[in-house]
Write a structure and sequence with these properties.
The structure is a single chain. This protein has about 350 residues and is an alpha/beta fold. It is built from 5 helices and 23 strands. The strands form 2 sheets. The protein has a 21-stranded mixed sheet that branches. A two-stranded antiparallel ribbon has the order 1-2. The protein starts with a helix and ends with a strand.
């Protein structure tokens, strides 16, 4: 929120154009937008230039949020003021909760799933039905129920294809509403997931595929009971738990713990990072070959795998590898780094 926006709101209150309560709500809404936009800038800053088209992608090859996100032609303050004047109480009215259900089927063995929301949870799970089922739970502030229904109908864009499902909360709703998404998918299909939220938990349970990218802020992340080649998990102010079989796992958070369970069935790499939290890596196959690098600022490091040779063993830094690592199969590399937390690496 700029100083100019702040002064404009204060002058409107002083001039009697809006009440003090409405002015306070405007200031809060703009501040919430600043926090969310800071997260989006951090998300976009991770992008790299893709070959050929100059379009930003992240390390998984997905288009960045900057490429996907619609461009807002007006300032957020203009949108809030329009809602205020057009709807009486408008965005300063009571919260209305509405639910919408969608069903359908896919005509492909591998499906792309993209879900993006704000101020809400994303929960994806498997079921034995041949089709999918979506439950959208929308929360919106409005001056009346009729106005709430109208606004709720505009909140989400849904695209369905034979091999794709996309559900995107439109830009601008993070300050006066929220959407939670519950999605149940056929367990028999393979999936590529690109899921992102802000101020909400994200989870995928019981499904498999090539790739799973899960991101949020101010919420936890969980992925379990599935198999993926690549898993990328990122949050802030939330914990991360991974119990899926992944050849490559990257799990980064701040102000939260990281727990990863490896099945040890194939070669893999695990990149685990947090600040202000502990890290736990457990494996179901302790006889595999392991190469471990662990660092912490304030905390203990324990490596409890069998037959390990320690190249470096300090209080806050450990490097170790299995004896005859090069002759082992499968081979698994583990990198764990935290501050203000302990690190434990061992068998389940």
């Amino acid at each position: 929120m700029s100083q100019e926006e702040r002064m404009l709101i204060l002058n409107m209150v002083a001039g009697g154009k809006i009440s003090a309560e409405q002015g306070a709500e405007l200031l809060k809404a703009l501040e919430r937008s600043r926090v969310t936009d800071d997260y989006e800038v951090e998300y976009e800053a991770e992008g790299i230039e893709a070959e050929g088209d100059g379009e930003k992608t992240d390390e998984t090859g997905e288009r960045s949020r900057e490429a996907r996100r619609p461009v807002r032609g007006r300032s957020l303050l203009e949108e809030l003021l329009e809602g205020l004047t057009a709807g009486g109480l408008g965005f300063f009215g009571p919260n209305y909760h509405l639910e919408e259900e969608l069903v359908g089927t896919f005509d492909a063995s591998k499906v792309e799933i993209e879900l993006a929301t704000c101020n809400g949870k994303i929960a994806v799970s498997a079921h034995d039905e041949p089709g999918y089922k979506v439950i959208l739970r929308k929360s919106v502030r409005a001056g009346s129920e009729e106005e709430a229904q109208r606004r709720a109908a505009e909140m989400v864009e849904v695209i369905t294809e034979s091999d794709r499902l996309s559900i995107i909360t439109r830009s601008g709703w993070n300050n006066h509403g929220g959407v939670s998404v519950e999605l149940r998918l056929p367990a028999s299909l393979a999936y590529n997931f690109n899921l992102r939220s802000s101020n909400g938990r994200v989870e995928v349970i019981g499904l498999s595929g090539d790739k799973a990218v899960l991101r949020t802020s101010n919420g936890s992340i969980e992925i379990g009971d599935g198999t993926f080649d690549l898993v990328n998990l990122k949050t802030s102010n939330g914990s991360i738990r991974s119990a899926c079989a992944a050849n490559s796992l990257k799990a980064h958070t701040s102000n939260g713990s990281v727990k990863a369970l490896a099945r040890g069935e194939s070669d893999g790499s695990f990149d685990l990072y947090t600040s202000n939290g502990s890290i736990s890596f457990r494996t179901l196959n302790p006889s595999a070959g392991y190469r471990v690098r662990a660092n912490t600022s304030l905390g203990r490091i324990r490596v409890e795998l069998p037959d390990m040779d320690f190249q470096e063993m300090r209080k806050h830094r450990v490097e170790a590898s299995s004896r005859n690592y090069e002759g082992k199969s499968p081979k698994i590399e583990v990198k764990a780094q935290t501050s203000n937390g302990s690190i434990t690496i061992g068998e389940e």
